């Protein structure tokens, strides 16, 4: 694989870790770019859940990189092979960069199905076992712009032994070497980039070893795996990310898998992560909830007061009712969202978030969304996904602005501190 076309241009590094920049040279022709820290566009089989392509593109600040997963695609391999022109054309994804990951970050995989030669993915028809040969045959059929290498990522459970963690690192490196060998000899994958996967569970030495060895391979970037929500507390995650990124080259992007909650995104971006998966808005939508947290760092005092007042309306009296963030279950509601199925919203005629410019907030009220949800109308998912995607993308824009203008601490107070303060005042 002769030199990667992907190039990370950093414009700012804060406190030696938080990175601001642009990822250039994306796509087969290299015409796309993506600002970092940034997030990918989460999809099911190339489609953002609940949204048509036309509806999706009414949103601004959409990522130029679309994520698809082999767990969705593997069972359709024969159809794609017959089609012959790759997944992007098959799904009508014309002006985007296609990234293919192994697992769906919003769908946990049952552990215990990994061997020295295979990993398993789960589609709608059940388990599909992948050897390196089958994995690479799928990549040739999909023809993504970049993909993550095959990896053994089953070490995120807290009771995983050191021996098992070491084996996962060894397997993942062996898989990477085999994938690169097939890749380099493949006509169909010319111009496609490979991201190496860094494993190591919760063991610092193995994380460092995995990062150091993966960095020696000719990869375009790195996937930091096994650190997803529920696997460990944030302090340990931050420590491990800091140790890994010290071993990784500065000019290649780091993609963190399985982390999407705003508080965790902030901490991980501060630790040196560049890219995140955007499955969190989908999870919030599936719960019948709307993202409702403040990230305004505007210097305009009047605007800031208005935003704060609205934020108080969003959260005062609701954060406690919604419950605290839990470590072990991604299906649990978080304090960054409001539950619109709750009866209190049946006569609440405010938008989901005051000042939000999305179609849902500009045209509908909380009471209407409550009605759609309790009557099981499909439109509920559409409107919630529009808002949650727009709100989440706005949060990432604010994160980049905060790094650029030395306002990370202010952003953290807006997203976290003021909410805590409001709950304490209420108590």
UniProtKB/TrEMBL annotation:
Keywords: Cytoplasm, Membrane, Metal-binding, Mitochondrion, Mitochondrion outer membrane, tRNA processing, Zinc. One of its GO terms (cellular component) is mitochondrial outer membrane. It holds the Pfam family TGT. It is a peripheral membrane protein. Zn(2+) binds at residues 356, 358, 361, 387. Non-catalytic subunit of the queuine tRNA-ribosyltransferase (TGT) that catalyzes the base-exchange of a guanine (G) residue with queuine (Q) at position 34 (anticodon wobble position) in tRNAs with GU(N) anticodons (tRNA-Asp, -Asn, -His and -Tyr), resulting in the hypermodified nucleoside queuosine (7-(((4,5-cis-dihydroxy-2-cyclopenten-1-yl)amino)methyl)-7-deazaguanosine). PANTHER family: QUEUINE TRNA-RIBOSYLTRANSFERASE ACCESSORY SUBUNIT 2. This is Queuine tRNA-ribosyltransferase accessory subunit 2. The lineage of its organism: Eukaryota, Metazoa, Chordata, Craniata, Vertebrata. The gene is QTRT2.
């Amino acid at each position: 694989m002769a030199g990667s076309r992907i190039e990370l241009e950093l414009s700012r590094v804060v406190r030696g870790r938080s990175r601001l920049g642009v990822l250039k040279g994306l796509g087969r022709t290299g015409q796309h770019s993506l600002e970092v820290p940034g997030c990918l566009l989460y999809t099911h089989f190339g489609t953002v859940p609940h949204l048509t392509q036309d509806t999706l593109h009414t949103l601004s600040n959409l990522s130029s990189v679309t994520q698809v997963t082999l767990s969705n695609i593997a069972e359709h391999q024969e159809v794609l092979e017959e089609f012959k022109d790759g997944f992007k054309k098959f799904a009508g994804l014309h002006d985007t960069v296609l990234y293919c990951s192994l697992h769906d970050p919003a769908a946990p995989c049952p552990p215990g199905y990994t061997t020295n030669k295979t990993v398993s993915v789960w589609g709608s028809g059940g388990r599909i076992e992948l050897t390196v040969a089958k994995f690479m045959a799928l990549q040739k059929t999909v023809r993504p712009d970049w993909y993550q290498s095959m990896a053994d990522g089953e070490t995120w459970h807290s009771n995983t032994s050191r021996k098992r963690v070491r084996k996962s690192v060894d397997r993942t490196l062996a898989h990477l070497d085999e994938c690169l060998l097939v890749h380099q000899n493949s006509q169909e994958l010319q111009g496609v980039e490979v991201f190496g996967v860094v494993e190591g569970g919760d063991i610092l030495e193995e994380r460092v070893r995995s990062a150091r060895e993966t960095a020696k391979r000719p990869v375009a970037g790195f996937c930091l795996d096994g650190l997803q929500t529920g696997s460990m507390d944030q302090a340990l995650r931050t420590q491990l990310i800091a140790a890994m990124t010290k071993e990784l080259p500065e000019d290649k992007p780091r993609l963190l898998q399985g982390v999407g909650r705003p508080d965790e995104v902030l901490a991980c971006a501060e630790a040196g992560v560049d890219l995140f998966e955007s499955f969190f808005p989908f999870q919030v939508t599936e719960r019948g909830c709307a993202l409702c947290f403040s990230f305004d760092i505007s210097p305009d005092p009047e605007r800031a007061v208005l935003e704060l007042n609205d934020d108080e309306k969003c959260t005062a009296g609701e954060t406690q009712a919604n419950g605290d963030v839990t470590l072990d279950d991604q299906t649990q509601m978080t304090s960054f969202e409001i539950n619109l199925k709750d009866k209190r919203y049946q006569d609440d005629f405010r938008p989901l978030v005051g000042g939000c410019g999305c179609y849902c907030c500009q045209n509908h009220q909380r009471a209407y969304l409550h009605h759609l949800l309790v009557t099981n109308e499909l439109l509920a998912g559409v409107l919630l996904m529009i808002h949650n995607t727009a709100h989440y993308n706005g949060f990432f824009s604010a994160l980049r602005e905060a790094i650029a203008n030395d306002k990370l601490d202010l952003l953290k107070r807006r997203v976290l501190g003021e909410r805590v303060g409001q709950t304490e005042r209420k108590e």
